[in-house]
Amino acid sequence: MADNPGNETREAPLSVDVGALAEGLRPAPTVTPAVLWWCVFLLLLVACFHPHPVTVSAVWVYVALLVWSRSAHRKAFRRNLAELPRLARGMAIRPSAVWPGVTALIPARNEEVGLEEAARSLAALPYPGLELWFINDHSTDHTPLILERIQHDFPHAHVLHDLPTIEGWFGKSSALWQALLEVDRYRRARDAAPRNPEQEWLLFADADVVFEPGVLQQAIALAERERLDFLTCMPRLLTRSWAEQFLLPTGWRGILQGAEHGRLNEPGSFPIGIGAFMLVRRSVYDACGGHRALGPWHPEDTLLAAAVKQAGGRVGFAWTPDLLRVRFYHGYRQVKKNTLRKMRIFFGEHLHLPLTMMALRLSTTLMALPMVIAGMLPQAAAGRFDPVLTLLGLAGVVLYVDEAREYKDIERIAEFHPCVPWLHPVSGALRVWFALSLMGQILARKPMDWRGRSAFGAIPPGT
User: Fold this and answer.
1) How do residues 233-270 score in pLDDT, each as one tens digit?
2) How far is residue 202's CA from residue 461's CA, in Å, rounded to a whole number?
3) How far is CA 133 from CA 41, 160, 192, 211, in A?
4) pTM of structure
5) The domain 84-330: what is its CATH number?
6) Do residues 207 and 117 make contact, with C-beta atoms less than 8 angstroms apart?
7) Where in the sequence of the chain do the CATH 3.90.550.10 domains occur?
8) Helix pair angle (300-310, 18-25), 10° resolution
């Protein structure tokens, strides 16, 4: 192990400006969306308290535009789901005389819940030439003991404990870069035949992902067939608690909604990297600087995809209904903590962005039922029909049903109880609460925290 790991990270100039890529991922710092959505919310409130033909007509214009826009998004989701490559049980794979080598690096920090099942499923994959490295990243729970058991039971599995951290770096990037340096030193020390970087793949995966036999062969075959240098795969999302079911499936759908297969490698397309499963050709990883370039920046998975594209590599995206599965969070506390962390990463320190999110949820998810009540209750109390109130109530019904339709077809990529779509106001209330909590963090200048670490690397200037 190097005495000064920081020096090894500066051996050669970087070919990719990841800082600029990170800044480009964040929303534009404009207050216009916040103003527009709060105006919509005020319009809905006025219509509920003082229904008038003019305000109710404006409400219907808003509802019609929203339904039209969402229908287009749902259509894009279904189209992408049909067109994107799929890894699934029973799919035929063309046999290969020699499968390329795969080096899997799995960071684990305080991952004792679910780690054993996930690690064993990966170690048991029947893929020839799989070299497996787990990184115990300064865990304070039973993670080291679990990984030692895996190493004992699987000869091709190795465990690296408590590698040096690099000041200012994002923890995961530091662990993965230091681990790769250790892997290369390990091979040199044993005079192992050097692997051809063009024929070696690196697999980066989260420690809570459960693998099924055949997934790695299918992924490698897809990458080689489409001449990719980077392939990320969306696992099936598992949820157990109500908080997970209310908040996570629609976010999972949002990734697929923007993943148009034919445009993934166009310069203006948004990069897609899912840390649960990322295959990268070693030569391209080295060319773009890998996690050495990502060091202080986050989110590291999306930025790795962006860096590969910037370096001229070809990227790909696939999904699987049954060969990979993951449960990211366990219960309300973890969902809230990690949702706020991700929002903070993308929103930076801009208060108007959580304000926009709050107004959006109020106007789309939470106002439907008040509109129904404001339209129907006065008519029931007075015992007479009112066309304006009826139109207001019907607008609320349309808004409520359309929000429930946002869950359509998501069951193919994520699990949730059938009643969840019809309880979506709970999801809206939780998101409003999270937006308020994020604003509190920003105002209090509270540092982000992840698994006991509060240092998250760099935030681009101006965020």
Assistant:
1) 999 999 999 999 999 999 999 999 989 998 999 988 88
2) 32
3) 51, 7, 16, 15
4) 0.90
5) 3.90.550.10
6) no
7) 84-330
8) 120
